[in-house]
Design goal:
Radius of gyration: 20 Å
Oligomer: single chain
Order of helices and strands: HHHHHHHHHH
Number of domains: 2
CATH architecture of the largest domain: Orthogonal Bundle
Strand content: under 5%
Number of strands: 0
CATH class of the largest domain: Mainly Alpha
Distance between the termini: 62 Å
Structural class: mainly alpha
CATH superfamily of the largest domain: Tetracycline Repressor, domain 2
Amino acid sequence: MPEDRAPTRIQKKNRAAILEAALNVFSTHGFRGATVDQIATEAGLSKPNLLYYYRSKDAIYAALLERLLDTWLDPLRAIDPDGDPLQELLGYIRRKLEMSRDYPRESRLFANEIIRGAPHIHAVLSTDLKSLVDETAHLIRHWIAEGHIAEVNPYHLIFSIWSLTQHYADFDVQIRAVLGDAEPDPYPGASAYLDQIFTRLLTPPG
């Protein structure tokens, strides 16, 4: 799409429709299984019309991931160095779980990209993401040294938070099949459980 003038309302609407459709298709079929034809059909546009905005499947996928990464890192950025350390970390865990509840397709899209070796975002993972995680790990070490939280490996703490929260989006079908009618909404129970285990893990001895 030409970039020499601001997009019109219709162009903005069509771009948004394409990305929303692509999110559905990619999160369901993965990158390899998705096609431009599927995305165009889902968006209610012709294939030539879609290709006016994005030249290829790769271009659509890259645009989705760029938007997703910024959203995905927001909860980590929101940790307040001056707040209560335990409550800041528990708040981060709750925000990550809420993202799994509210953005399951985005979570699956991100998981699929990582499983494929992160061909589109590897540079971001090793620069922007790494810098943010390094900064957070440094803050956690400071809180440990000050005696505010128990001694843990900061990086593996962050990894465990990611895995325990994003599991509820990436394996939603499995979770709901196991819980059945006994717990039709898994998120309240998950939130209480994660609060419990991380409070026990992070509370200093004595």
